[in-house]
Amino acid sequence: MVKNQAEPRIVISLWLVVLDVLGLAIMGVGIAEQLGRVHVLTSVWPHPYAGAVLMVIGVAFMLPLLLSILKGVQRVKQADQVWLQQLPVELQKKLTERVKNESRK
Length: 105
Fold this sequence. Notes:
mainly alpha, 0% strand
């Protein structure tokens, strides 16, 4: 018995996930700092906008994963378009009509 497993269409590397989790943690500390619940940077960097700076750094750490996913989706869409153009014209029309009908729901 042979299982035909499809390969993943978008591959996300582990370091991007780790960077995203680290960015989430930094952003959480930044939110807590901004709300006045936690004072992590007060002794090192006594700045009134330290929480906002931490939030911006956290978002910057999270951006590479988001951009990687968006690029992957773009590549998949291009590959699907190439595949669709290789099909006979009748089948192309049927598939595009079906997709339009499904997207209306």
